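Running this now, will post back.
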Amino acid sequence: CKSITSVTIPDSVKSIGQSAFYNCPALTNVTMGDSVQTVGNTAFGNCAALTTVEFGNSVTSIGVSAFRGCKSLNGVELPDSVTSLSKYAFYNCDALTEIAIGRGLKSFGDFSLGYYYDGSGERKRDTMTIKSYDDSATQIYAEENRFEFVSLGPLKVRSQGDVNDDGKVSVADARKLVVAIAKGDTAALLEFGDVN
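Update: finished.
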């Protein structure tokens, strides 16, 4: 893989295997099809020239050290489908100072994001900015690790018509709406938002 500069993973591929593109020194761009669900351990590790990765909308997990040592990687956006970042996933990514993370991420492995090795141990990257949603696991990770957190809005988005927030639109929602209208409860109506 010494001379590969760009990789497009086709929609027929569901998993990028362990060390699939490990240590490809000229690789600068990766585009993943929407069928890719997992990025294996060290799949793109030590691809020092890698600057951009476009994730498909089906990626759920990013393996151990998947992008470790990708020193030029920057501007990463993880889709809502990603639920877990394994340990060291984006470790030693010197240029990665900002990342946007979707709503789905629930678990972070040790040193998965915002850390590097300086010869004597793990160090926190002081310049890391994490963009995600309020009250998310990502916000908790950012705050616990003292990274700058930028809100992309509320984590939970109410489904249109779901006024009681139970995850479905039903007769119970209609009842609650009718009661609020009958009482003239404008505060409740404003809270329900656009229900039609």
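The first helix runs from residue 137 to 144. More later if anyone needs it.
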